[in-house]
Design a protein that fits this description.
Purple Acid Phosphatase, chain A, domain 2; alpha/beta; 6-stranded mixed beta sheet; 242 residues; 5-stranded mixed beta sheet; 29% strand
């Protein structure tokens, strides 16, 4: 059995009332707390983008704030990644809000993700006695560059291996036009012959379990996070909003 916790859109930013950096919505802190304290053992925790609200880390040099006004990234690491990584490995991707950064092209959130996973898109393999489970991060969304990489990766995998892909942009509904139908169809053409057990996304600020072209789509961007379970014996994935 593989068990994952999935959330997104933590949006850490400076809270004027509290005078410190916090998640934009209290529901995010509640989700982090629930995952951190739950008795269930997770094999991995996925956060599908918009980790911060502005992409800042507050860095400065000679009184020049080149990393933005506040340390959103530092608070995200301290108050989200650190408590969650005590439960299970944490896998991240960037969202559009994380690209803001500071001046002169300084993008600390993207730099942080690259430092953790060697790239903004990557593959992780979870091994068990019953088989392997593959998690693939496609960053903000699977654009042409990432699809070329994904084609090569998928060709190395047996078509029966269960795969979960995650990225930030949603596939349907409000805000799904941040990438084109052509790009979505190109993505589907790459993955359609493999055992894609789910896609995890964010961007649209609600939690849901839906389908796209017959593939389960999971979002933990709202009040609840998604608990995902995969059983090797039945090749069946189940999902719960927690």
């Amino acid at each position: 059995m593989i068990r994952l916790a999935i959330l997104s859109d933590t949006h850490f930013l400076y809270n004027e009332k509290e005078k410190k950096v916090l998640p934009k919505k209290e529901r995010t802190s509640n989700k982090i707390s629930r995952i951190s304290s739950i008795a269930t053992k997770y094999d991995a925790i996925i956060i599908a983008g918009d980790l911060t609200d502005d992409g800042w880390d507050g860095k400065s040099f000679l009184c020049i704030e080149y990393g933005g006004d506040y340390d959103e990234l530092g608070s995200f690491i301290k108050d989200c990644v650190e408590p969650l990584k005590n439960i299970a490995p944490v896998y991240l991707c960037e969202g559009n809000h994380d690209e803001g950064g500071g001046i002169l092209g300084y993008k600390p959130v993207l730099k942080y993700i690259k430092s953790k996973y060697n790239n903004l898109y990557y593959m992780k393999i979870l091994s068990t006695d019953l088989g392997v489970f593959v998690i693939i991060s496609l960053g903000k969304y699977p654009n042409a560059e990432k699809l070329e990489w994904l084609k090569k990766i998928i060709q190395t995998l047996d078509i029966k291996i269960p795969i979960l892909c995650f990225f930030h942009f949603n596939l349907e509904g409000t805000w799904s036009n941040w990438w084109s139908d052509e790009e979505k169809n190109n993505f589907y053409s790459v993955i359609k012959n493999n055992n894609i057990v789910a896609l995890a996304v964010g961007h649209q600020h609600r939690s849901y379990i839906e389908e796209w072209k017959g593939i389960p789509v999971l979002s933990g961007a709202g009040d609840k996070y998604i608990e995902f379970e995969y059983c090797f014996k039945t090749n069946k994935a189940t999902f719960y909003m927690k």
